[in-house]
């Protein structure tokens, strides 16, 4: 654990036990540096982390204060999967549960996307209109796959923000991150192969394994620090894993963030065994702290990490523009893309290229992250005050999901159906494991435009869960 995490943990404990009551001012950065023997960067990172968890609030020109009504919600423990290979059959349940997500009348706590009104849709529309006016007809056929060279260069510049470079020729532009992830999986596996996934894991990963007739083995995962690399090493000793599909940054559904040392160990472990890592990094830009977390790809020296991301969760959900930095597999992915869907939509590529060239993306991200961070504080407060005793929740340092562990007597699928009757959706934990083991867990989306509506929906969900205890 890093020093800023230790400091944040100590302060969180003081808030939880009442030593620092609501409204109390935290020691100044200078005082904390002197008393703890740390540098200012460590203190700022600790305070940013506490702010992301909704425990403290910054007041301009005054300092940091314990948030009014701040309550520390205990986090879930490590997951404990069976450690055995499993067939995957989740799609029917996923389709049943998600069938209601298109209903605008529902409070979208179960949605996989932030509220569309949080995105700069008017600026994007203007960019698309301008892009179409300047579109050279030959461009619609020149760069079918791997995508526009200019857009790939813009994407490669984003990697420089995390202090490592990606050659734009390694990038393949896709129809959203899901196509990038699916193409990557197709290239590195064959039917019947075994793939390691997190526990819990994104249901889209399970659906991809099911479609390709692959088997899953789930790896213990912590809601704060992600994949247990030592546990994965033990699995690799016993099972013929052919690929891994992990989300090191703000994992869906946990929100976990693997420390850099763990990412480095993970990449080194897999390189020793020549096992490809499919890295899903669609939430990496939505960090609440000072620095963007580095992807596992940053430690890849052998081209074994296939890093997948998109603009769908950060900028333009309907444009369906994603990409994969495929390492040694990039040519095979480009060919597979050409055979399956030819190219990503030309107007969408043109519009996003123009938007990125004009600037403003980072300004939009700062605004979006501020909204999400504030909403997370609202959500954690609601869980602490309105959900049953014994409820646990993971406070992520980015993204827009909370993983909630309810008392064992509550069936999350029953709660989901009951909440639907009250016009509130949720994502029950059954969706996030090949064996549906997370029966009293929920994934909650706090990426709403109106925090009052978010609060009302969570209060209702809390009351319903209390009724089921």
Automatic annotation (TrEMBL):
Q: Which CDD domains does its entry note?
A: AAT_like, WHTH_GntR
Q: Name one Pfam family in it.
A: GntR
Superkingdom of the organism of origin? Bacteria
Q: What InterPro entries does UniProt report for this protein, alphabetically?
A: Aminotransferase_I/II_large, HTH_trans_reg/aminotransferase, PyrdxlP-dep_Trfase, PyrdxlP-dep_Trfase_major, PyrdxlP-dep_Trfase_small, Tscrpt_reg_HTH_GntR, WH-like_DNA-bd_sf, WH_DNA-bd_sf
| Keywords assigned by UniProt, alphabetized | Aminotransferase, DNA-binding, Pyridoxal phosphate, Transcription, Transcription regulation, Transferase
HTH gntR-type domain location, by residue? 1-69
Name the Gene Ontology molecular function terms of this record.
transaminase activity
For this chain, the family text in UniProt reads: In the C-terminal section; belongs to the class-I pyridoxal-phosphate-dependent aminotransferase family.
The protein's name:
PLP-dependent aminotransferase family protein
């Amino acid at each position: 654990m890093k020093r800023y995490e230790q400091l944040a943990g100590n302060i969180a404990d003081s808030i939880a036990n009442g030593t620092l009551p609501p409204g109390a001012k935290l020691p100044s950065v200078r005082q904390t540096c002197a008393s703890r023997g740390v540098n200012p960067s460590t203190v700022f990172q600790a305070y940013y982390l506490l702010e992301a968890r909704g425990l403290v609030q910054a007041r301009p020109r005054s300092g940091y204060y314990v948030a009014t009504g701040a309550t520390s919600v205990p986090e879930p423990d490590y997951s404990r999967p069976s450690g055995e290979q499993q067939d995957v059959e989740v799609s029917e349940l996923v389709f049943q549960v998600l069938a209601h997500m298109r209903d605008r009348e529902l409070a979208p706590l179960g949605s996989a996307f932030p509220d569309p009104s949080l995105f700069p849709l008017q600026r994007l529309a203007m960019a698309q209109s301008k892009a179409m006016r300047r579109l050279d007809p030959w461009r619609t056929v020149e760069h079918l796959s791997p995508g526009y060279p200019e857009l790939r260069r813009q994407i490669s510049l984003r990697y420089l923000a995390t202090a490592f470079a990606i050659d734009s020729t390694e990038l393949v532009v896709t129809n959203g991150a899901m196509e990038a992830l699916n193409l990557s999986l197709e290239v590195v596996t064959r039917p019947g192969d075994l793939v390691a996934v997190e526990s819990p894991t994104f249901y889209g990963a399970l659906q991809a394994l099911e479609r390709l007739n692959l088997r899953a083995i789930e790896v213990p995962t912590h809601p704060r620090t992600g994949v247990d690399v030592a546990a994965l090493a033990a699995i690799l000793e016993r099972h013929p894993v052919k690929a891994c599909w992990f989300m090191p940054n703000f994992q869906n559904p946990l929100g976990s963030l693997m420390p850099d040392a763990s990412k480095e160990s993970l990449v080194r472990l897999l390189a020793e065994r020549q096992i490809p890592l499919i890295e899903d990094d669609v939430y990496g830009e939505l960090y609440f702290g000072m620095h963007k977390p580095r992807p596992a790809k940053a430690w890849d020296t052998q081209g074994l990490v296939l890093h997948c991301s998109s603009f769908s969760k950060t900028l333009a959900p309907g444009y369906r523009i994603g990409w994969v930095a495929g390492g040694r597999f990039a040519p095979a992915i480009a060919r597979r893309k050409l055979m399956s869907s030819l190219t990503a939509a030309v107007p969408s590529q043109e519009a996003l290229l123009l938007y990125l060239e004009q600037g403003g993306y980072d300004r939009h991200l700062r605004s979006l992250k501020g909204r999400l961070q504030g909403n997370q504080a609202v959500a954690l407060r609601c869980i602490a005050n309105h959900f049953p005793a014994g409820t646990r929740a993971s406070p992520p340092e980015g993204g827009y999901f909370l993983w909630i562990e309810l008392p064992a007597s509550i069936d999350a699928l029953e709660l989901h159906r009951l909440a639907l009757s009250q016009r509130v959706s949720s994502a029950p934990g059954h969706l996030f494991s090949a064996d549906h083991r997370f029966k009293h867990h929920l994934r909650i989306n706090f990426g709403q435009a109106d925090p009052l509506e978010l609060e009302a929906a969570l209060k209702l969900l809390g009351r319903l869960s209390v009724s089921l205890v």
